[in-house]
Design a protein that fits this description.
333 residues, two-stranded antiparallel ribbon, 2 strands, globular
Length: 333
C-alpha cells in the first residue's frame, strides 16, 4: 500500500511527526534553567538555615567521635594533652576488667526490664487519655508534667519514697499487710527501684502513642462492633496493628536510651565517690564516667564508649531487620 493512496493517513503521520518534533523542541525550549537556578538558591538557603546544626554536629558530635576513636588506641594524659599510642591495649582491658562485665550485665538486665514496662505503661496512659472527653487538655498536661521535672528533683523525691524504713511506698504496703523490701539496699531490688523511677518520665513515649491512637480510623471500631468484636479483640486486631509504627519507633528509641542509663542510678547511688554503693547499681555508663572523670583513664573510657556504640548498633540493626516484619504501613496491601 502506497502512501499516496492514503493521503489522510500520510497527512496525519506528518502532522504527528511535526507535533512530536515540535513537542521535543518545546521541551528543549522549556529547559528549566530558571527553575534549576531557583532550586539551587533554595537549596543554598536551606543549607544556610541548618548550617548552625551542621557545624555543631561536625564539631561537637562527629569530631568528638573521631577524636575519641583516636584516643581509644592511646594512653591520654589530660594534664599535658598528649596521647601515647598503645595499640589495642585498652580494648584488651575490656575483657580483663571484671567490672566491665558486671556493669554491662546490669545494663542488659535493666534494658530487658525497663523497655517493655515503659512501653506498656505509656500505652495504657495514652489509651486512657484518648478516651478522655472532658478536661482532656488538663489531664494531658497533668500526665506530662513529670517529664518536665528536673532529674535531680525526681531523684530526691524517689530517694524518700523508696526508703526501706520510712518511705511512703513501704508504708503503703504495710497498710495492706505486705512487708516492703529495702529498695535502695537489697541488690535484688536496686534495679527495680531504678525502673520505677524511670516509669515516672514516660510522658514523651505516651505523647507519641497518643498521636498514633488519634490517627486510627474510628470506622474500623464501628465495623468491628457490628461484627461482635469485644475490646480485647479490637485492641489486638485494630489498635495494635494501626499503631505498630509508633510502637516500633518507641522500642528502638527506648532501647538506645536504656543502654545509656545514667541519671537515675547516679543520683540515687553514686553521687559521692565512696565505694559503698551496691554493685547492682553499677551500670555501664556510670563505670565509663568513673574511668573518665574520676580515674582519668580517658583512653580506656573511650574504648568502653566505642564498645557500647557497637553493641547499640548491632541491637538496633537486629530490631530494624526483624521488627519491620510486624509493622503495618498504610500503603501495604
Amino acid at each position: 500500500m502506497s502512501l499516496t493512496s492514503q493521503p489522510d493517513a500520510y497527512v496525519e503521520a506528518l502532522e504527528g511527526r511535526a507535533e512530536s518534533g515540535e513537542g521535543k523542541r518545546r521541551k528543549k525550549k522549556r529547559a528549566p534553567k530558571v527553575k534549576t537556578h531557583y532550586n539551587k538558591r533554595e537549596a543554598i538557603a536551606g543549607y544556610l538555615f541548618i548550617s548552625p546544626w551542621i557545624i555543631g554536629f561536625l564539631v561537637f558530635t562527629a569530631g568528638a567521635m573521631v577524636y575519641s576513636l583516636y584516643i581509644s588506641f592511646s594512653n591520654y594524659n589530660l594534664a599535658t594533652n598528649t596521647a601515647r599510642p598503645v595499640g589495642f591495649e585498652n580494648y584488651a582491658r575490656l575483657f580483663e576488667d571484671p567490672r566491665v562485665g558486671v556493669s554491662l550485665a546490669n545494663t542488659l538486665f535493666y534494658v530487658v526490664m525497663a523497655v517493655p514496662l515503659e512501653i506498656i505503661f505509656a500505652l495504657v496512659l495514652a489509651m486512657l487519655l484518648d478516651r478522655a472527653s472532658r478536661a482532656a487538655g488538663f489531664w494531658r498536661t497533668l500526665y506530662y508534667l513529670p517529664k518536665m521535672t528536673p532529674a535531680v528533683a525526681t531523684a530526691a523525691v524517689f530517694f524518700l519514697l523508696l526508703n526501706g524504713n520510712t518511705g511512703a511506698i513501704n508504708q503503703g504496703l504495710r497498710l495492706i499487710g505486705i512487708q516492703g523490701p529495702q529498695w535502695l539496699v537489697d541488690p535484688a531490688w536496686v534495679k527495680p527501684s531504678i525502673v520505677i523511677m524511670t516509669l515516672w518520665t514516660v510522658a514523651g513515649t505516651m505523647v507519641i502513642f497518643l498521636a498514633a491512637l488519634k490517627n486510627v480510623p474510628r470506622e474500623l471500631y464501628e465495623v468491628a462492633s457490628l461484627d461482635g468484636a469485644g475490646p480485647i479483640r479490637k485492641f489486638f486486631s485494630i489498635t495494635l496493628p494501626m499503631i505498630s509504627g509508633a510502637m516500633f519507633f518507641n522500642i528502638i528509641v527506648l532501647s538506645i536510651a536504656a543502654f545509656q542509663v545514667f541519671d537515675q542510678a547516679f543520683l540515687l547511688f553514686w553521687r559521692d565517690q565512696s565505694n559503698s554503693s551496691p554493685e547492682a547499681s553499677l551500670f555501664y555508663a556510670i563505670y565509663l564516667f568513673q574511668q573518665a572523670f574520676r580515674q582519668f583513664n580517658f583512653g580506656f573510657a573511650a574504648a568502653m564508649a566505642w564498645l557500647l556504640f557497637v553493641i547499640i548498633m548491632v541491637i538496633t540493626v537486629i530490631q530494624v531487620k526483624f521488627g519491620n516484619r510486624f509493622v503495618y504501613y498504610e500503603g501495604d496491601r
